[in-house]
Amino acid sequence: MKYIEGGICAARGFMAAGIHCGVRPNKNKNDLALIFSEKECAAAGLFTTNQVKAAPVKLDIETVKGGKARAIAANSGNANACTPDCDENAAKMQAAAAAVLGIPAVETLVSSTGVIGQRLNIAAIGEGLPKAAKLLEHSPQGSDAAATAIMTTDTKKKELACVFAVGGAEVTLGGIAKGSGMIHPNMGTMLCYLTTDCAISPEMLKKALKTACGVTFNRISVDGDTSTNDSLIILANGLAGNPEIVSEGEDFMTFTAALTELCTEMARKMAADGEGARHLITCTVSGAADEKEAETMAKAVISSTLTKAAIFGCDANWGRVLCAMGYSGVEFDPNSVDITFKSAAGIVPVCKNGMGLEFDEKMAKKALSEPEVEILAAMGSGAGQATCWGCDLTYDYVKINGDYRT
Amino acid sequence: MKYIEGGICAARGFMAAGIHCGVRPNKNKNDLALIFSEKECAAAGLFTTNQVKAAPVKLDIETVKGGKARAIAANSGNANACTPDCDENAAKMQAAAAAVLGIPAVETLVSSTGVIGQRLNIAAIGEGLPKAAKLLEHSPQGSDAAATAIMTTDTKKKELACVFAVGGAEVTLGGIAKGSGMIHPNMGTMLCYLTTDCAISPEMLKKALKTACGVTFNRISVDGDTSTNDSLIILANGLAGNPEIVSEGEDFMTFTAALTELCTEMARKMAADGEGARHLITCTVSGAADEKEAETMAKAVISSTLTKAAIFGCDANWGRVLCAMGYSGVEFDPNSVDITFKSAAGIVPVCKNGMGLEFDEKMAKKALSEPEVEILAAMGSGAGQATCWGCDLTYDYVKINGDYRT
Fold first, then answer.
1. Are residues B284 and B204 part of one domain?
2. DSSP alpha helix (H) spans, A136-193
3. Whether residues B374 and B257 fall in one domain
C-alpha cells in the first residue's frame, strides 16, 4: 500500500465539506462536517462501550444495523448527551442531513463531540446543513474542511489516505479523525470516519473493522477515560470495481491488512496529539504467554500516570514500567523481564531479568527527549506480543482539563 | 471511641523511634523508623497485590503467617526492590533489627519505601538500627520521629490514636502512615503501621484488619498506580487486659468498628495529601444494585483523570462524573442518576435523572474551591452505597513525578 493525499475524499465517489454553523461561539472554528457518497455504501461502525451513550451514538448503532449508509453529519462543540432533548436533536439532525442530501434518514449517520450535558443548538445545525451540502466536493480541500470541523482540543488535523490492489483493481481507503482527551482502550473521545471505494459486503466490512480496531484504536490511551461519544465508522461504495469481497480469503486479508495499517497510523496520530502531549509513548511487550496478556501489560504501562509523568520529565524511571506490568492483572515472573528505552537518539537497556542495570543517565535523558519514545519490555513466558500507544502527562494536560467548559 | 494523642506509641507497651541513618543523602530527613512492643503481639498484615513485590514485602508475608511479631523496622528513600541483592538485604535488615532488640528474627517485620531498582545502603541501616533502638520511647515524640522517618513525598505527617471500651477494659489503638503517590485501590505506595493493646487472637486480628481495609485503604486512589511496597501491619499486645477476642461477637464488632473508623481517617489523610493535591475528593454512590457496584462506580469517579482535573479547576463538569460511572463496568440506567456537588461552602445539584440542571456557575465554583469536595451520585437501582476518596490532579503532581528520582 502507498499513502496518498485526499483524506476522507481520496476514495472514488466521496465528497466532504466543513463549515462554521454556530454550535461553537468562535466563528473562526469549523463546527459542522458533512461526508457524502454519490453511491450507496456498505457501512459498519464501532461505538463506545460506555453505559452512558450520547444520543447520536444510540441512533447510529441502530442505523448501521441495516448495513447501508451514504452520509455522515458531525458537529463539534457539544456532545449532544445528557440533556432532555438530546434524542430528539439527534433525530432532527439525521432527518435534516438526509433531507438536504435527498437520501433516506436510515442511511444517514450523525455524530457529536464536545461538552456533555449542555443543550445542542440544533437550529444552527439545521441552518448549517444546506450550506455544507452546497460546499461538498471530492477534493483534498473538502476533506480538510471536514477534518477541521470535528477537531476539539486537537492541535493537529488527522487525515490519511492510501491505495492498494484488491483483486486486480486499485482500491483507495482514506479517513479523518479527532482525539484528543477522554482517550482510553476501547476507544476514547475519538471520532474516526473512513471511506473506501472497495467493493465489500457489510458483514465482511464489519469484520475487517473489528479486526483493525482491536489492535489499533483499542490500544491507545491518553487519560484512561472512555467517552460517551466514541464512534468509528467506515463506508464502502464499491466504485473501485474489484470483485466484491463477500468471504474470507486473499482479498479480505489484503483489505484488512491495509485497513489495519491505516488505523495504526491514525491511532498513533491520536496518541501523539493527546491533550498536552509532548511525547508519543509506544510500549511493546514481547515474550508474554499470549497476545492478550502482552496487550494487557502494554496497556497498563501506557496508562500508568507515573510512567507518563516520568516520560514528561525525560526520566528513565523504569521501576514504574515494571510496577505497572505488575498490577496489570497478568501473572508473570518479574525476574524474567528486560526493559529497554529506545528512540531516534539511542537505545538504553535499563533492566535485565527484573534487576536494574547501570546506565548513563545523560544518554537516557537524551533518548527520552525525542518526540517518540519506545518502551520495550521483553519477557520469557511465551510468544505473545502487543504494542500500545499513549502519551506523556504534562502541565498542559492539567491546564486544558482543569477548565475545559469555560 | 475518642481520638487521643500518641500515634503509634499511644497503646500500652509500644515504643518507637526515628532517625537519619544515611539511606537518604539529606541529613535533615529521618529515614529509619523502629517500632517495638515490650510484649509479644498477635500480628496481621495485608500487602500489595502487585505481581512485582519488593523484597521486604515478600519477607513480611512469610513472617506474619506465624501470627506473632514484636517489632517493625522501616526505611524510606529506597524501595529495596528489583536489585540483585534486595532479598539478601531484606533478610539482613530483619536479622539486624532482631539482634539489637533481642528478639527472634521471625518476630521482626521490615519495610522499605522509595525508588525501585537502586541498591539499598544496607550498611547505613545496620549502623542506624542500634542508634534507633537506644532512642525507643513510649511517647508522642517517639511516634512523631517514626512517622517522619517513613515519609516520602508526603507533606503532612500521618498519626492517629484513639481509645474505646472492649469487654469493660479501655483499649487504645494508634498508628502512623505514609502516602502519597502510587496510591490506588488495593492499596498504593502506602505504609501503615497500627498498634493496639487489645487482647485479640491473630486470626481475629487479621479478620478485623481485612474488614477495615476493604472499606478504607482499598477505597482511595491518588493516581491509579498500585505500588510494589504497600504494607498495612497491625500488632496487638494484649496489655489492655480485656478478655481476649477469639471469635466474632460484641467485642469483635466493637474492635472492628473502631479500627475501621481510625483507618477511614487515615485513608482520608492519605488521599488529601496525595501528591500535589489541593482538594480531597469524596465520592459517595448510593442507590446502586449492591455495595460492590456502588464501590466500583465511586472508584471510577475518584480515579477519573478528567474528573480530577476538573476539580483542580473548580469546574462543575459533572458530565465527567457520569461518564466515569458509565465506563466503570457496572450496568445501570443513566437516566436514573442524580449528581450533586457538596462542600462546606454549599450544595449544588447539577444533574437530575441523567440530565443537566441549570445551576449558578459562580456558586458552583465557590463550592468546589473548598479543600474537601463531595460528589454525591444517587441512583435508583437498589440499596447499595459506598464512599471512595481521591484527590485532584494538579500541576504539582506532574512536577513531583516528572523528576522523582533526581
1. no
2. 140-149
3. no
Q: What is the DSSP letter of A289?
A: S
Euclidean distance between CA atoms A300 and A325, whole angstroms: 6
What 3-state class would DSSP assign to A238?
coil
Across the interface, whether the CB atoms of B355 and A118 are under 8 A apart is answered no
Amino acid at A19: I
Cβ atoms of B77 and B405 within 8 Å: the answer is: no
**Chain B positions in Cβ-Cβ contact with residue A305 (cut-off 8 Å):** 223-225, 305, 401
Please, what sign has the CA dihedral across residues A224, A366, A363, A341?
A: positive
Cβ atoms within 10 A of the Cβ of A247, count? 11
d(CA B391, CA B371): 10
Number of domains present in the structure of chain A? 2
Question: What is the Cα–Cα distance from B207 to A239, expressed in whole angstroms?
Answer: 69
More confident residue, B183 or B206: B206
Q: What interface predicted TM-score (ipTM) does this complex get?
A: 0.78
The rounded distance, in Å, linking the Cα atoms of A8 and A15 is: 8
Closest residue of chain A to B82, computed from CA coordinates: A355
B303 in the same domain as B155? no
Interval A90-130: pLDDT, tens: 999 999 999 999 999 999 999 999 888 889 999 999 999 99
Tell whether B259 and B327 lie within a shared domain: no
Q: Read off the DSSP letter of residue A200.
A: B
Using CA atoms of B240, B243, B245, B249 in order, give the dihedral in degrees to the nearest 10: -120
Is residue B210 exposed (0-12), middle (13-18) or buried (19+ Cβ within 10 Å)? middle
Give the whole-angstrom CA distance, residue A29 versus residue B208: 59
Q: Which residue do the cell numbers 500521618 mark?
A: B158
Q: Are B188 and B230 in contact (CB under 8 A)?
A: yes
What does the pLDDT read at residue B185?
A: 42
What CATH number is attached to the domain comprising B352? 3.10.20.340
Residue A200 shares a structural domain with residue A284: no
Query: Cα distance from A82 to chain B (closest Cα, Å)?
Result: 5
A37-91 residue pLDDT tens: 999 999 999 998 888 889 999 999 999 999 999 999 999 999 999 899 999 999 9
**Contact assignment for A81 to B310 by CB distance below 8 Å:** no
> Are A320 and A247 in the same domain?
no
Catalytic residue among A63, A148, A189, A282: A189
A287 and A197 in a common domain: no
Same domain, A91 and A181: yes
Over residues B121-151, the pLDDT tens digits come to 999 999 999 999 999 999 999 999 999 999 9
CATH code of the domain covering residue A85 = 3.60.70.12
| Beta-carbon count within 10 A of B362 CB | 8
Q: Which domain holds residue A331?
A: 280-402
Question: What's the predicted TM-score (pTM) here?
Answer: 0.82
Domain boundary pick from B211, B240, B272 = B272
In this complex, the residue of B117, B326, B351 whose CB is nearest that of residue A117 is: B351
Which of A272, A298, A323 terminates a domain? The answer is A272
